[in-house]
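Weekly modeling sync, notes
Attendees: S.R. (lead), two postdocs, one rotation student

Agenda item 3: backlog of single-chain predictions. S.R. asked that every request posted to the team notebook include the full sequence so nobody has to chase files. The rotation student volunteered to paste the first one in as an example of the format we agreed on. Action items at the bottom.

Example entry:
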Amino acid sequence: MSGQPIDPGVIELAGRVFDLARGGHTQELTEYVDAGVPVNLTNDKGDTLLLLAAYHGHPGTVAALLERGADHDRANDRGQTALAAAVFRQSTETVQLLLDAGADPDAGGPSARATAAFFDLPAMTALLDARG
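Predicted structure, as returned to the notebook:
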């Protein structure tokens, strides 16, 4: 670390990219990623673009990020993964996409499997059990 302050333009761009992931603006987000924004960019809480897209229920955005190499098992600072977020939100399509990409139902803490059990989500548990 050089101790140099981060350029305000970079901070603004990062904020915009995270907002695009939260909002499911797939085309605009993927244009930024394709232009060089890291697909595994994390915010100050360790949330990745993939985790935010999964949590906010945007399977198309999740698919596009996975196609670009997003790390499906990367956990944020609280131990949450994109798969656990998708399970919590009961997004069958997103859970299936993440499982198809190789996401581990037991990664993170609480894991996707533990999240499904804690919130008594039998449909999500069945999806995870079919894979893991």
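Discussion: group reviewed the output briefly. The domain at 8-131 is CATH 1.25.40.20 (Serine Threonine Protein Phosphatase 5, Tetratricopeptide repeat).
Action items: rotation student to repeat for the remaining queue; S.R. to check formatting next week.
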